[in-house]
Structures are given as structure tokens and as C-alpha cells.
Amino acid sequence: MGLVVQKYGGSSVADAEGIKRVAKRIVEAKKNGHQVVAVVSAMGDTTDELIDLAEQVSPIPAGRELDMLLTAGERISMALLAMAIKNLGHSAQSFTGSQAGVITDSVHNKARIIDVTPGRIRDSLDGGNIAIVAGFQGVSQDSKDITTLGRGGSDTTAVALAAALDAEVCEIYTDVDGVFTADPRVVKKARKIDWISFEDMLELAASGSKVLLHRCVEYARRYNIPIHVRSSFSGLQGTWVSNEPIQQGEKKVEQAIISGVAHDTSEAKITVVGVPDKPGEAASIFRTIADAEINIDMVVQNVSAASTGLTDISFTLPKTEGRRAIDALEKNKGGIGFDSLRYDDQIGKISLVGAGMKTNPGVTADFFTALSDAGVNIELISTSEIRISVVTRADDVPEAVRAVHTAFGLDSDSDEAVVYGGTGR
């Protein structure tokens, strides 16, 4: 038996009973002959509570000190889990991200992993221990400061360790039974997917699916680490994410034409009104946004009015970055030359994802027909070979997701999807 990396989210270790349940699952894997590395998130809503506490003390907490504060949540989880495992008669050692060799850049609150040197983890495993690692954190290569990886950082920690340790699989334990064809909190008849390619999972993650974060999937694809998404609340098989389809019995699981419907209501839309329609204007706008270190998603430019020679450019971005983007554009208004800005944070994005759609005519027509029949108005459209995304009113998103899910025959005929912990993550 080989090495397995398991990651447990906040809902799985939310309380003492959850920690003891996770400890039993880890010990079971150890008894089955595996070497086990467990990566843990902070308990329940600890990270959000720590952020709230920091903001009560300081409206704009210093990035370095905020990272020092937030990493305490995972350290609590790892120590308690190691205690629970020892209580079951097995040896365990806990490690912070820096002790585990997770080396990052120097960007606080959203650092990126640049290397993993898991010497201490390997020594611990060779000594017969179960290694427990605090997710979401690392140490800066340059400043040696503690850093955090941003939302979903524990997933990325787990995949990075799996790659560095040459693990057989990275198991991501959450509070749903796998990856579903839609968010089970919105679509009760969503179906669990047995296998999905890295390519499709990347599109779902980028389009709003919260089960796996985009960075985690990208890292796994780069190093070809199979991911098994499953629930820590049940013993059911979950969803495999890999390059090659899994084998079930005598046959391989086939790639579906449509993998799923994702949605995202965490974005806002900015429209730059009255932009001169000439070379370099769009570059100036998006260079300003890039210099402010803001990621954008969808971009649409209208056809310029013949009488004025002016056009409008709209783009979407995280709501949390909206104020910063507006300030950056206003500051450079003279250099860009636009008339005004419009900001709208009451939008939602719906995306249809599937590698099969590029060889199946009619998918686009069926998608827009489903939205039309549901009375949903479309504001922006963006497409790739395996994805169609639209922006609409946030209030219309739940009905739109259900309508599209049904239109493409994705509804389950059997039991409804279960969200054990209440968050779908």
C-alpha cells in the first residue's frame, strides 16, 4: 500500500465529535497499510471569526499580523486531531505549514506555493507516525514570515504535499458525497459525478463550484495527482478527478457530454462608459486593473457608436475587489479618457460545462432556450470550447440553474443530494 494524503475541511472538524470521527477514518487508512498525511482546515467558522475579531481591533489589519492570527485556527485543529489519533492507540505528529516545508512567495493573505520540501514529514512517516499538517499556510522564501494561501488554501496544501511526497491519491474530504452536476443546496436533484476530467473540473471551479478550488485542481493537473472528493460523514465512494477515467468493474466511466451547471454570486460588474474606440484604450484599462493586483473574469466590449466614436467596456471581478478597482480607474481617468463608471454588485453568473459540447451541435441553443423559458434576461455572454457562461440578475440565479439542469437531463431519478454539514464544502 502506498502513501495517501487526506484533507479535511472545517465542517469535518467543526467540533470534538467531528475530530474524533476524522481520527477514526485516518486510523482506518493506516490499518489498511497506507502511510497517511492528513491536512486540516480550521474548525468550523474559526477563520471567519478571527477575521471579524481582527477587523474589530483594526479596520485595516496589517497583512503580516493577520496571517499570524489566521494560522492559529489550523494549528488548533492539527493538535487536537493528533491527540485524538493517539487516544486510538496510534502515533501521530502535527506540523505547521512551515514545519511541513510549504514554501511560498511573500504576498500576505493570498500567497502562492513555490516549493515544498517535506523532509520532516517523510522522516515522521518513516518512523511509523501519521503526519498531521496545518493547511492554508506556509512560510515566505524571502522574508521567512508566516503566510496564508487564501480561500481554499488547505486543498492546495494537500495537493502540493501529495505531489512532493509522490502520493497515490489526494483525498479531499468535505460535507457532500462528491462533485455534483450542480450545487446540491440549489438543485435538490443534482447527481453525483463518478469521474470528471481535470479540464472540466477546472472550468466548474472557475465558474463558481465551491467543492474544489481552481488553484487546487490546477496544481493536481500539473503534477498529475488524482483527487478523490468524498464526504467525511459517510463511507460512500465520491468523485474522482484525474486525466484518465476510472475503471468500474469491466468498463471505464465515460465522459459525459455535459459535466454540470455552476453558478457564482460573488462577483460584481464594472462598466467603463464612453471609452474612445482606438488602439490602446482597452490595454490602459486592464493595465490599471492589473497594477492594482485585481483578477477579472468576463470582458465584453460594445460596438462603438458611429456618431461619437465611443464605446463601453464591461468586465466582472470579485465583489471584494470592487472598491479598489473603482478607485484605481478613477485615479487614472485622465490617462484612459473615459466618461464615467457604473458599478453593479447584484449580478450572478451561470455556467454550463462539458467537454462534449464542442462536438455536439445545439448545446448553445438549448442553453439559451432554457434560460428564456425560465424568464431569465442575459446581460453578458462568454464562451470557451467546453463552457458557456452568462451574467444575469442575482435573484434569477437559483431558478436559472434549476431550469438549465433540468433542460440537459441532469436531474437525478434517485435520492436527493445530501449536504451533511450544511455548507456544501
Detail the topology: elements first, then pairings:
Elements: E1 3-8, H1 16-31, E2 35-40, H2 46-57, H3 63-87, E3 92-95, E4 102-104, E5 113-116, H4 119-126, E6 130-134, E7 137-140, E8 146-148, H5 153-164, E9 169-174, E10 195-197, H6 198-206, H7 214-223, E11 227-231, E12 239-242, E13 247-248, E14 251-252, E15 260-264, E16 267-276, H8 281-291, E17 299-301, E18 310-318, H9 322-331, H10 333-336, E19 340-344, E20 347-353, H11 363-373, E21 380-384, E22 387-393, H12 397-407
Parallel strand pairs: 1-2, 1-9, 2-6, 3-6, 4-7, 9-11, 10-12
Antiparallel strand pairs: 4-5, 7-8, 11-12, 13-14, 15-20, 16-18, 16-19, 17-18, 20-22, 21-22
Helix pairs in contact: 1-3, 2-3, 5-7, 6-7, 11-12
Characterise the protein shown here.
- By secondary structure, this protein is α/β, with parallel strands linked by helices.
- Helix content is 33%, strand content 25%.
- It is built from twelve helices and 22 strands.
- The chain has helices spanning 16-31, 46-57, 63-87, 119-126, 153-164, 198-206, 214-223, 281-291, 322-331, 333-336, 363-373, 397-407, and strands spanning 3-8, 35-40, 92-95, 102-104, 113-116, 130-134, 137-140, 146-148, 169-174, 195-197, 227-231, 239-242, 247-248, 251-252, 260-264, 267-276, 299-301, 310-318, 340-344, 347-353, 380-384, 387-393.
- Strand 21 (380-384) and strand 22 form a beta hairpin.
- Helix 6 (198-206) packs antiparallel against helix 7.
- The chain is globular, with a radius of gyration of 23 Å.
